[in-house]
Amino acid sequence: MALEKTWRWFGQKDSVTLSELKQIGVEGVVTALHSIPAGDLWPLEEILQVKKEIEQYGMRWSVVESLPVSEGIKSCSPERRRLIADYIASLRNLAEAGIDTVCYNFMPVLDWARTDLHYKNKQGGESMLFDYPTFAAFDLFLLKREGSEKDYPESIIEKAKQIYAAFTPAQREELAYNIIVVTQAFIHGVLGEDSHNYIERFRAYLNTYSVINRDKLRENLVRFLEDVIPVAEDVGINLCIHPDDPPFPLLGLPRIASTQEDFRWILRQIDSPTNGITFCTGSLSGGSDNDLVAMAKEFAPRIHFVHLRNTTHIENRSFFESGHLTGSVDMFAIVKILLEEQLRRKKEGRKDWRMPFRPDHGIRILDDFTREANPGYPLIGRLKGLAEMDGLQTGIERMLKREG
Ligand code: DNO
Known about the structure:
alpha/beta; 2 domains; eight-stranded parallel β-sheet
């Protein structure tokens, strides 16, 4: 049986084509209407068009990643009412097109953060690094965020000073540009592809949250869930929140989807199977205190979508993205829990037994150096991850069968 093999595809702009995905054995595609700005309605015709393209190759549109929750909903701005109405209308359109799983996140301003997009590993491949002191240098000396010095211990500030001093002006610019624009633009980042005056505009977004603490953000998430979950239930869509990446506070922004306790809290607020989780082993493992095996066990029935990848911790909250099977994640234990959950769903007759997974961020290797890709999304590196996760599942399934 195995978890449904899916792949993140960025639409016609993607350098990997749907026919190539078919060749590598992908069963389902994970995509979004990337040309529509966050917050705008997704028209049924455009959804149907993408769906048709995918189905022409004998695959299905397994998951929407993401139907973006715009800043106006996260911060509860005066525009919220319209934004929620559009979100609901988009959900209804997706359901009408037969799509059953929608991923979203509730991270303010920044969707994910890395400090080096070309981190060389010992074998000559390239992955991504989150270096905490370098991130602090960005916050303290490039953004010059008010009060930022209170957020870091003295030892990190000292390191940040040294890093910043050693950077050339071009390196400083690249750091800010990578964090604010490059890693965000292709996934509906707040500034979109418009990089004009980006530091100033980014600061303005951060400012919105000066009056929103963790409790307030939680309250805004609950309001969102109260509005959308009943609709999703009604139309048969499972919603799944993506964890914070990395799963600890950044830039003074509140974080509410980082730990086991956070997810327990979120699932409890609306105790419906529709209110679920995207289990992203890469994001969650960025927090060295997170026990991913315990989380997979506890949340299994509410996991609607799985991102499999790995991280290796350095120190001080720093980590790099390592191969899918190498790193801090006990991939065997987690995949086993997920496969057992799948068997249970089958037995119970649940219609969401497919449990789509995708190999998340891959390491750039071989021909990846000659093919355009968004940061984290090289073809060969992810294909290697897909093959590894496939092999692991074959082994575990054989083992489970033998155990009866
Ligand atoms: C980065 C991705 C995230 C993720 C969103 C989901 O590579 O994992 O951008 O898609 O946070 O809403």
